[in-house]
Amino acid sequence: MTFKRSALTEHFLTDLVEEAKQLLGQGKTADYIPALAAIDPNQIGIAVCFNDGDIVQAGAAQTPFSIQSISKLFTLVQALKLYQDELWQGIGREPSGHRFNSMVQLETDHGVPRNPFINAGALAICDRLQSRLSAPTFQLLELLRKLADNPALHANNQVARSELAHGSRNAAMAYLMKAFGNFSNPVEQVLHSYCHHCAIEMSCVDLAKASVFLANKGISFSGEAILSADQTTRINALMATCGLYDASGEFAYEVGLPGKSGVGGGIVAVYPGHFSVCAWSPELNPVGNSLISTWLLEQLTDRLEVSIY
Ligand code: GLN
């Protein structure tokens, strides 16, 4: 069936958000970063951005939240622009099948992270960015401000400090990569920028706008070429296979769109040729993906009969 844009209305999204309220209380907010555990869990938002920039939204779609691992999508964009295919020396493109912050494969894979969307891979990407950019966090913020058309975007320093203070696992992964010769910059410097990227705050509307170029062959809604069509297709392929950590297969099965999640409770998904969507609710399932955001996206794609497969 062909996608009918007229079915994706504010009314449709508002109904989904209302129905989703019955799932509140079934998940758990991320508590390994103490500043994230303090968030009000009873929030649900969703926003769709069509390729022409039109927005449809419902619930808390304009409330900024911690983007966390969704930042990995945009640091990959920056790194691909800077390195092109050279980027893949020392960073894999396979789903890990393990938790987002697992270290087990890093040892057996000789310090080469499985993909850029798990923590080890994103730390390697941040290391590459550190080598070529004078101020990686500022430059990421500038990219996001432009893509979301929101000059007010910023990182929450309290969340970044909280994560840095509890970031032994990420530090261990970075040092292990360094021991294998797959990490060039001082670990503490890279951790600092990585944590600030994760602590950037954006709303569903901001994130849907910022990722819509992935649905439009690399062209942003304001008409700017962000990546080539070829690079865009490949990022979508990585999102489809690796974007939801060890639930990537389940997400492909149930939602059927390339996606990227974060422990702040947001999930971005892309329907190439049509729209991007961001759902948000802070309570997570055991894998670390938002329980309600996953449900919202399942319902959206089921009811609209949208899937890339
Ligand atoms: N900042 C988080 C971490 O490094 C991001 C993890 C995530 O969103 N899955 O653990």
Automatic annotation (TrEMBL):
Homotetramer. Signal peptide: none annotated. Its EC number is 3.5.1.2. It comes from the Bacteria. This is Glutaminase. NCBIfam families: Gln_ase (TIGR03814), PRK00971.1-1 (NF002132), PRK00971.1-2 (NF002133). It catalyses: L-glutamine + H2O = L-glutamate + NH4(+). One of its GO terms (biological process) is L-glutamine catabolic process. Belongs to the glutaminase family. Substrate binds at residues 69, 119, 163, 170, 194, 245, 263. One of its GO terms (molecular function) is glutaminase activity. Keywords: Acetylation, Hydrolase. The keyword Hydrolase applies. It is an enzyme of class 3 (hydrolase).
